[in-house]
Amino acid sequence: MILIGVDVGGTKTTGLAVDLQGRVLARVQAGAGNWEGIGLAVAAQLYASIINDLLVQAQAQSEDVVAAAWGLAGLDWPSDETRLRPLLVPLTPRATLIMVNDAFLPLRAGSNDAFGVGVIAGTGSTVAGVAVDGRRYRTFGLGSAWGDFDGAQSLTIAAMRMAAEAHYGRRAPTLLTELLCAWGGVPDIPTLAEGLTRGTIVRNPAAFAPRVTAAAEAGDAAAVTILATAAQLLADNAMAVARQLDLAHRVHAVVIAGGVAQALFAPFAQQLRAAMPVAQAVFLKCEPVVGAVLLACDAVQPHMAVQMRHALTTKE
């Protein structure tokens, strides 16, 4: 008997098959799996390929799968479940099937408890939580227009604003000016602004985010402010989700993961601790797909979940 967990993301898809003791029998990685980006037909082929490859590696049959948990980017609304469930049920027809938005995986991967709050901070952000009674709640994950942190690119946009304000004389000089000019290959901020707005300079805004972190570590006041502001938004949303799920006065983990999570962790943890002392900020050190496997474990043998998490995370 085996458990399967799959983390379906907008960039990559990862699947794990484990036995009931948490021994990894198979691991598969593929490309983007979000049906919104690749279409339902291609998504169906990808999901089938993931399960087939896992079963081949594990030398198992679909009938051996007792539970399969999927964390799916693109499972955002009830209508999405009606689209996606028919693609997944036939792949492991005898298994208990669990389907959640992929934002719920970091929480389960990073905590021994099945309840708490998870925060994704990467190219975008979503905050997702689970109550003690199993109720789920999450932010929309649709960016600042809908109350979420805009992710790595927003750190770059804030850096540009700070550099412009320094150029105007509205704030003290900042190391971000030098770093932005080097990033753009230009001598000054006006030349960078011209190039970016006129299309003669093409850069991925998210790629500059690590330099904001570097500037903050060097003590640059503007960069420190940028990280603190982003962390505050994430902490505010984490606390809002906790309140929705009656966790605000109960000890629980708040697990943060994603491409800019490490950069934001210190101010995030500080702000969370000041406003909600019962919450324990945790930086996720294992892959989110571990959370999918644990959700599968919760469905069929919850008494084994802590042992299985230990087995999986000590191998990461």
3D structure, described in words:
- The protein is about 45% helix and about 20% strand.
- By secondary structure, it is of the alpha/beta class.
- The chain folds into two domains: about 1-95 and about 285-315, Nucleotidyltransferase, domain 5 (2-Layer Sandwich); about 105-285, ATPase, nucleotide binding domain (Nucleotidyltransferase, domain 5), CATH 3.30.420.
- The protein has a five-stranded mixed sheet with strand order 3-2-1-4-5, with helices on both faces. Strands 8-7-6-9-10 form a five-stranded mixed sheet.
- Helix 5 crosses helix 9 (about 220-245) and helix 9 crosses helix 10 (about 260-275).
- The longest helix has 24 residues, at about 220-245.
Low-pLDDT stretches: none
Report the order of strands and helices: EEEHHEHEHEEEHHHHHEHEHH
The main sheet comes to:
5 strands, mixed
Taking Cα atoms only, what radius of gyration do you get, to the nearest Å? 21 Å
Work out the count of structural domains: 2
Question: Descriptors for this entry?
Answer:
316 residues, alpha/beta, Nucleotidyltransferase, domain 5, 2 domains, 5-stranded mixed beta sheet
Helices and strands, with pairings:
Layout: E1 2-8, E2 13-19, E3 24-30, H1 35-38, H2 40-58, E4 65-72, H3 78-88, E5 96-101, H4 105-110, E6 116-121, E7 125-130, E8 136-138, H5 152-168, H6 175-184, H7 189-198, H8 209-217, H9 221-244, E9 252-257, H10 261-275, E10 279-283, H11 289-300, H12 305-313
Parallel strand pairs: 1-4, 4-5, 6-9, 9-10
Antiparallel strand pairs: 1-2, 2-3, 6-7, 7-8
